[in-house]
Amino acid sequence: MCFFALRYGGWRMARLERGLLLYVAISVFVNYRLFSGGDGWITQHWWYLTFATAATYVTIFWAIAWQRRTPETILLAAASSLKLAVAINENLLPYPVDLSRYMPYSYLPMFIVIGWILIDRFVKALNESEALNTELEARVAQKHAELQENYRRMQQLERQQAIVEERQRIMSDMHDGIGAHLISTLSQVEHGQLSSVEVAAALRECIEDLRLTIDSLEPTDDDLLAVLGNPRYRLEPRLKKCGIELDWQVQDVPKLACLDPKNVLHILRILQEGFTNILKHADADRVSVETGVERDKVYVRVKDNGHGFASDHAGHGLASMKHRAQAIGGQLDIQPSAAGTTLSLLLPVSKSSTSS
């Protein structure tokens, strides 16, 4: 009980604690002597030390009650004093009151108070734990909401950044492509260097270039066939008008992760340049377009039956086509021959498509 009183008060008294342990060790032998009928001065006066021990923890309880002055500490000090009062009445008063029948219950009030204190602290600790858990859940929910809001803002900023970049790309492409072509055409018209037919052809090229830019903005879902659909729709009547038959042998191919608007425009310009060369220089009457997969790459192959061109030909148009193919991460292969020219555009297949 003395140790409990010290711990309850949050105190550490090394000498007192060592004395208490010594008292416990000696009391084993003294009590053995008492119960075995032994006699002697120590056994006759041992109860004084026991009384002093009880007085010690009662004193500690009253010191705690005086220090804290809470109902809990005062009630515990009063309940612990009951046993001490009974001991004083029995052993120290010259004319004690007969309380022998109540002796077995003298410790009961103190133990009831201690039990109540322990239960009360346990309930408070449990409530505090539940409150902390509730607060923790609320904080986690708050942080989760903040993370979601930050993620939403990041997505919004990324979309805005993508929109800005796409606008800049379109403006740059239109400025360098259509804008430069229109300025050049306008300058030639103002100087009387172009006939009406040539002006119409130049304007038609500008319109085709603008259509390519618009087509590159259409959603593709990484599907190459969706990219090739619009060029076929526009090219077939034009080729037919020039007496060229279009053999369309396009088949399903794996998804291509590289088909963003910028790369789609590169692909469309490569095909546009290829068909423009066929119309202007090949003197062909048949053109075939096919797709497929070879060596883990998707290919788009355009083949005509014209007269071809010299293998050492390296004009600006072909250099631009190869540069665009490299920008996509692909490869452009052009094989001229006497029986015609074959243009093969090889595009990388995404890993997920390959594994599936």
Structure in words:
Helix content is 67%, strand content 11%. It has 356 residues and is an alpha+beta fold. Among the domains are: 2-106, no CATH class; 223-356, Histidine kinase-like ATPase, C-terminal domain (Heat Shock Protein 90, 2-Layer Sandwich). The protein has a 5-stranded mixed sheet. A hairpin with a 2-residue loop joins β4 (331-337) and β5 (340-348). It is rod-shaped. Residues 352-356 have low confidence and may be disordered.
User: Please, how many helices?
Assistant: 10
CATH architecture assignment name of the domain at 223-356: 2-Layer Sandwich
* Fold-level CATH name of the domain at 223-356: Heat Shock Protein 90
Q: What percent of residues are in strands? A: 5-15%
Q: What's the rounded overall pLDDT mean?
A: 81
Relevant CATH superfamily of the domain at 223-356: Histidine kinase-like ATPase, C-terminal domain
Structural class: alpha+beta
Percent helix: 55-70%
Q: Compute the separation of the termini in Å.
A: 75 Å
Strand order of the largest sheet: 1-2-3-5-4
One letter per element, helices H and strands E, the order comes to HHHHHHHEHEEHEEH
Q: How many beta-strand segments?
A: 5
Low-confidence stretches: 352-356
| CATH class label of the domain at 223-356 | Alpha Beta
Largest sheet: 5 strands, mixed
